[in-house]
UniProtKB/TrEMBL annotation:
Gene Ontology MF terms in the entry: GTP binding; GTPase activity
Name by which UniProt lists this protein: Methylmalonyl-CoA mutase metallochaperone MeaB
Originating organism: Neolewinella xylanilytica
Matches recorded under InterPro entries: GTPase_ArgK, P-loop_NTPase
A family per Pfam: MeaB
Domain of life: Bacteria
Amino acid sequence: MRPDQLFHDLQSPRHRRALGRAITLVESTRAADRAAAAELIALAEAHRPEAPTFRLGVSGTPGVGKSTFIEAYGMELLRRGHRLAVLAIDPSSSLSGGSILGDKTRMEELTRQDGVYIRPSPNAGELGGVGAASRAAVLLCEAAGYDYVIVETVGVGQAEWQVHGMTDAFLLLAQPAAGDELQGIKRGILELADHIVVNKADALPREARLAAAELRRSLHLAPARPDGWTVEVVSASALTGQGLTEIADRMDTYRTELREGIQRQRAEQRIEWLREQLRRELLRKLDVYLNDAGLDNDELRARLDQHFTLPVTADVILTEFLKLHRP
């Protein structure tokens, strides 16, 4: 199907299948799909929705209850009249290419609701847990009429930094623990958060209070934010619904008070997307060159023996590569 026809179907009332096909296209690593994916992204950028949209990143350590929280929070958003898309980025094996893709089964109630689209996507080993096509997928969901997009990450390593760089707000979920167990949340990650929620407060109320107090102390050590926003730490329970209304209210306040800042942030994120695309395309062309030039492991080993040091060998190979791509 032509990209313009696919985009037309994406904006029709019966858009679900088209949206799935569109995201699959931009996720594809096949050379034959690159031009069509680029055209589809261009159409999405040229036809932004008239109504304002909101992009929320949700992350946290494994076992914190991200999927349970998103389901309960999503139901609250539906009650407020939003149309919700959830992009759940799953871990993939760098060896097998396999993916768990289990978020739909963990969000059974939310999946059955009209006005909700859930897309579990493998990250294909992408550093930080956010798939290469995640930015494009957000645009496509908005083009399909979803005004609230949640991006859930695997919550490992640099995932929080990457999701912060593609969303309007970043919500961090924490475990109801204290002391050493909270050290798993690095200070830099705390400084990224726009709101912090200690989940599972129903099962461990005392531990949740202690964790919230410790997180507040940690936030006091962070430098003041230039946008003037005050990050709050609250306790909640995705299982019982405790605190979810207040969290949604807080996110609405953020969206209202920082409206202009969000627009500036999106413009900066678009520039970063361009940088990522340039780096990704450069690496792709380098891989093609290495393959075409017969530079497999044996040949690379021979080059190392010839030039003795790794930096000199790399410099020689890159010089040869750049000569081929010089205008």
